[in-house]
Amino acid sequence: MTIYALSSGPGISGVAVIRVSGKNTAEVVKKLTGSKLPAPRVATLKKFNKNGGKETIDEGVIIWFPGPNSYTGEDLAEFHVHGSRAVIKAMQTYIGKIKNCRLAEPGEFTKRAFQNGRINLLKAESIADLISAETEIQRKQALKIMSGRSSDTFNSWRQKLLKILSHVEAKIDFPEEDLPKNIFKKIQKTSNNVLREIKKTLNDQKVGERIREGFKIAIVGPPNSGKSSLLNYLSKREVAIVSEIAGTTRDVIETHLNLDGYPVIVSDTAGIRSSKNEIEKKGIKIALNRAEDADLKLIIVSAKNIDFTSVLKKLLTKNALLVVNKSDLVKGKLNGKFKKYEHVLISIKKDLNLNKLILKIKSKLKNKFTTTEDILITRERHRQNLINCVRHLERFQKKKSAQDFDKAAEDLRLATRHLGVIVGKVDVEELLGSIFNDFCIGK
């Protein structure tokens, strides 16, 4: 089937781009323009007509990309028209009436590019990441992955393991033949090197995922300590309802921020206290789970009534910053309970020391996003496949005797398969749907 879709953003704009790809693309171009195909890859001014040229839809630019030298690897055309809803609808309605043409599914153009060998799976994912990038660091990471460095590394590991596998399978197929002794040393050395490099890559503090998904900050603490007020202050808008009534926040409220170019997801959670209310208890449980999953916990308490429950003390032990709010209400010496924890004294109401808090958060961000190595892992599926690859390589290394060669070969096959799944070198049809459904229609 030939597919078509609006590839530029929806809504009113100066120019809209409608993309068409597939076997019938040439026919679509001829019917809409009423003339022969334009010169390849040259922007050509044309009138776009329907009903056999009797009615003009719009006048704009067409660019013709004959396959296989196109984004999808198929015949592809781009119609640049005026970006009104009426023009876009008329163009799409007419294209849809042409035989074997249908509206594209989300990510289908990029999916066809992958299936036709124009890009690998990592590049396809990086295109989606680049489209959704909101910060400078996300843009840079997506471009690095698109450059092919990470896929080159994964493919290099895979090729090394395939070479080892060929030697092991040779011994299985020809057991009477003696392979050179140095072959076995090379097998061991190569597998050790690959295993060590993959383990080093896995020990990356999940920087790639943090950049792509956002640094997670959870604001937790007892009721009426100022959690929702802090969320609103950081967001610079009214995200959460602020009230003197305890227990106002029952569910998690999230907002996405851009702090000095770093992507951040801040979550306001239910106040932590003993409660008999079932809904509030469920909200507290969700709050604790969100805190455990966060990259940084802001434990906010009131300076007037600092009460460290056992739960709050436990949360303060790792990746946490104590925020003592309402410091303006306390006269004289403050409670000394908080002094042994990393803390900041603030007053959201009086706007005191909030700049210090933001500087502390930014310092934590920079430490978490800093890495001396090239980022290879940007998604959980990459990490899980590398973990599985390590597991099979470790099993392979435990097999020493000739009787274990069959099992050793299977361990190597599975290890190489997991590396292949990352870049799309094996049958990954189940995976494609979940990856390309995240794309917008028209890409």
Task: Explain how this protein is built.
The chain is about 45% helix and about 20% strand. The protein has about 450 residues and is of the alpha/beta class. The strands form two sheets. The chain has a six-stranded mixed beta sheet, with helices on one face. It has a six-stranded mixed beta sheet with strand order 8-9-7-10-11-12, sandwiched between helices. Helix 11 links the parallel strand 10 and strand 11. It is flat, with a radius of gyration of 29 Å. The relative contact order is 0.12.
Keywords:
443 residues, Gyrase A, domain 2, Four Helix Bundle (Hemerythrin (Met), subunit A), Rossmann fold, six-stranded mixed beta sheet, 12 strands
Ordered list of secondary-structure elements with their pairings:
Layout: E1 2-6, E2 13-21, H1 25-33, E3 44-50, E4 55-65, E5 76-83, H2 85-97, E6 101-103, H3 108-115, H4 121-132, H5 136-146, H6 149-173, H7 181-202, H8 207-213, E7 215-220, H9 227-235, E8 253-259, E9 262-268, H10 278-293, E10 296-302, H11 310-315, E11 320-325, E12 343-345, H12 354-369, H13 380-398, H14 405-423, H15 429-436
Parallel strand pairs: 1-6, 7-9, 7-10, 10-11, 11-12
Antiparallel strand pairs: 1-2, 2-5, 3-4, 4-5, 8-9
